[in-house]
Design goal:
By secondary structure, this protein is mostly helical. It is built from 7 helices and no strands. The longest helix is centred in the N-terminal third of the chain and has 28 residues.
């Protein structure tokens, strides 16, 4: 190695450091280093929230909008409908992972001894992946407990009409 080669390497390293420093200075002056005033999204809370106080003031009308906008993309809302997920009619009070003809994930079948009550539905809607790790449902969750209560209130209205019993009066 001669002196000229060492000089070239030293000048290259020096120019690279100056160029990187200059780029950093320009970037810092152009892009402010502040947090946004509002978060772009909020992750669901890690603590389970009791849903009962929110159910008292739940709006099934708002819940219907949420369910039709979010859930109806993959689930049928009425009996006999088809979708990627099980039908949501009569889901409240139904045993978990029990809709006939639907192939549930092993993660959700582990909860098969439970019934979908308001609290379990809230826990599920908070984060399906946290409720049943390994579930195939790709929904991120509803972080707001009032939105969950509204959706659950609407799910209470999704009932399959029972057939009218045949009696002597309606033959």
């Amino acid at each position: 190695m001669d002196g000229r080669f060492v000089n070239r390497v030293a000048v290259s390293v020096l120019l690279s450091a100056v160029a990187m420093g200059g780029a950093l200075a320009v970037a810092c002056s152009v892009v402010p280093d502040t947090a946004p005033t509002t978060l772009a999204f909020r992750l669901p809370d890690q603590q389970a929230v009791t849903i009962a106080p929110f159910m008292v003031r739940a709006s099934s009308a708002h819940g219907g909008q949420l369910v039709r906008h979010i859930c109806a993309q993959c689930h049928a809302l009425a009996a006999g409908g088809e979708g990627a997920g099980p039908v949501l009619a009569d889901v409240v009070g139904r045993t978990v992972a029990s809709f006939p003809g639907y192939a549930y994930s092993a993660a959700l079948r582990q909860h098969g001894a439970q019934v979908w009550d308001d609290q379990r539905l809230s826990d599920w809607l908070t984060s399906p992946a946290r409720y049943a790790a390994g579930t195939r449902m790709s929904f991120a969750g509803l972080p707001d407990p009032q939105d969950r209560a509204d959706a659950i209130a609407y799910l209470h209205t999704l009932r399959t009409p029972s057939p009218t019993p045949i009696t002597g009066e309606n033959r």
